[in-house]
Amino acid sequence: MTTELRHLLPAINQLARSTQPVGLDIVGELVHLSPGRAQRVFRSLLAESPSDYHQRVRLQRAAALLRGTESRILDIAVASGFNSHEAFTRAFSRSFGRSPSAYRRMDSSWSSAAVAVCVAAQTAPCISLYGCSVDTQSPRPRKERRLMAYEIEQRTIEATPMLFQARRVELEKTGEALSQILPAVFGYAMEHGIEMTGPPFVRYVEFSPAFASLEGGVPTATRADPPPAENDVHVGELSGGKVARTVHRGPYDTLIEAYEAIDRWMGEQGVTAAGPLWEVYLTDPGEVPDPKDWETEIFWPIDG
User: DSSP label at 220?
Assistant: First the structure.
């Protein structure tokens, strides 16, 4: 995340919270830029204009309410900031390719509707921000890193179905890649009414000095039908079994410190890594704009 994007977080928060239109003049005031400059920066960093962002978040949250509650469509439309059933239906149909009533009638039902609605509502505003960098400088030398006290525990977890995209990327472009991968997977899940059970994640399948092979996606309640190849979205599974688990508090740039702490812990406990680690993004950067307060949960499969 560049300095400009960090400065955009107050505007992102305002747009995500409001169901009513937020003018460019207000966006500009929130980020201390002219309206035109605010629009250009917003679009260049989030790949959508403030108005498009606001509309997408409202519609994705409305879609979750359609699938996860029995509220009347008109009530959902009004709660989402639309002044009529017709206006909501037009906007929803353009975005999802079907009417609100047809979307609600889709085959699969949500087994834990309240959880799924909450996940969708919390994830929609910040889906392109997870994993982003807040430090444009080079990574800190090891001797300059803080000594955060990590509480590391061994857990046994169940395997979890997932939707994901896979990509091999240069390490310094990981955040840029995730800003494309996670919105694509989340958008596919929302478009097809797939029940999500938790925040987005990224699993690092392979590391080299300059590149990483990763899988970014969302956990789902059940194994979804394989998506068409042209979507580049796949179904899979986050492995179950024994894991080392901890929570990192701070910007994503410093997650390496948590990996090193778990690696030391494994040595002390006499266990070894048994598969690729993954990180789960617990904090909405728009809701919590200070990176030092961001929480990321880390799971590393282990033997022993």
Answer: B
Q: Which residue has the tokens 């997977």?
A: 185
Could you tell me if 157 and 31 lie in one domain? no
Higher pLDDT, 254 or 142: 254
Question: The tokens 């996606």 sit on which residue?
Answer: 217
Tokens of 282: 């617990």
Residue 121 phi/psi, 5-degree rounding, is -65, -40
Domain count, the chain: 2
Phi then psi dihedrals of residue 6, to 5 deg? -60, -40
What is the DSSP code (8-state) at residue 128? T
State the virtual CA torsion across 178, 184, 190, 192 in degrees, nearest 10.
-140
List Cα–Cα distances, 245 to 91, 150, 205, in angstroms: 42, 10, 17
Spacing of C-alpha 145 from chain mean position: 27
Same domain, yes or no: 147 and 270:
yes
Q: Using CA atoms, how far apart are residues 134 and 151, in angstroms rounded to an integer?
A: 24
pLDDT, the chain, mean:
88
Dihedral angle over CA of 244, 249, 250, 251, nearest 10: 50
Cα 282 to Cα 66, 70, 123, 126, 198, distances in angstroms: 24, 28, 10, 11, 9
Grade residue 136 by pLDDT with cuts at 50, 70 and 90: very low
Residue 268 and residue 173 in one domain: yes
Asked if residue 153 and residue 287 are part of one domain, the reply reads yes
Domain interval for residue 23: 3-126
